[in-house]
Amino acid sequence: MRTETKRTLPFTLKLVAGLFVLIAIFVIAMVFGAANTTLSDLWLALTSNVQGDKISILREIRLPREIAAIFVGAALAISGAIMQGMTRNPLADPGLIGLTAGANAALAVTIAWIPSVNYFGIMIACFIGAAIGAIMVLSMGTIKKGGFSPLRLVLAGAAVTAFLHAVSEGIGIYYKISKDVSMWTAGGLIGTTWGQLQIIIPVIVVGIIIAVFLSRQLTILSLSEEVAVGLGQKTMRVKAVLFIVVIALAGASVALVGNMAFIGLMVPHIVRAIVGTDYRFIIPMSAICGASFMLFADTLGRTINIPYETPVAAIVALMGLPFFLIIVRKGGKAFS
User: How do residues 83-132 score in pLDDT, each as one tens digit?
Assistant: First the structure.
């Protein structure tokens, strides 16, 4: 009965509905905030060259920030979906298995040793750090026979994340750059600039395109390694490419907003409840739902305590931790 319910609406209709929700949340995110703006102000900011204080706030502060929220949310959700499919582990998430912690540690090392580094260099460092963190966790998670058991992967992720956070904090204290490191790793969209978006967005877009292109192979891979090999799939090559995509998406996200856990865990589970288990549908819907969720969280962070701002990472964690516990209790099948 549950499978039939999922197929009552065509995927295209679900995708269009998701896009409408995304647009609605984007408009709300742009209009609401510490500065009182209207839909008319938003229209002028997006479609004209009119100048003014409110228009400038919308065009130069809120617009790049919300565009960043869209792409980061999509990147984290897709990277989580890919990891869950590759490892067949319902608890896989870039923030829980060492990718973001590795990127944070690499960022701290880069700021300490190359203080004059530009934003492109920071992004490359985040990619390298994310790869090192993921390799450490996956290596620990597969030391014994039995592959990626959910418990083993989460425990390895917790250990590696704690170690890498300690490295980051230690470097910050030793080189007296704790404040600079914290500004990057706190997890937020404050101060996002158009220059940063010009570097980050192409990386995320390319990663999403490759993920969509390999979504059919990921669906087969998520069923069973034996099935994938039996169908003639070159599993090692597919896994290598998907692993690089995850590193690029997670590394780019950390370079832009810092540490952000749970989005990659929550969104794919919610999406599977909507579109089923075919990753040809999960990947694009995860991008839309992840973007919508990040916009919603950022809007909450800006508005619940005006004129002060609540860290968006804290809001995401407040929503993500209960979700994580539910998934653990249900054995990963609560929303799938």
Answer: 888 888 777 788 777 788 888 888 889 988 988 888 888 888 888 888 89
What does the pLDDT read at residue 146?
Answer: 54
* Sign of torsion over alpha carbons 310, 324, 70, 94: positive
Alpha carbon distance 251, 242 (integer Å): 14
Looking at residue 64, its pLDDT comes to 92
Q: What are the structure tokens assigned to 42, written together?
A: 């938003």
The span from the CA of 315 to the CA of 163, in Å, is: 24
State the Cα torsion 47-50-54-57 to the nearest 10°: 70
156 vs 45, 111, 276, CA distance in Å? 48, 27, 29
CA distance 264 to 260: 9
Q: What are residue 333's phi and psi, to 5 degrees?
A: -115, 10
> How far apart are alpha carbons 328 and 150 in whole angstroms?
9
- In the chain the domains, ranked by start, together with CATH numbers, are 10-25+61-330 (1.10.3470.10)
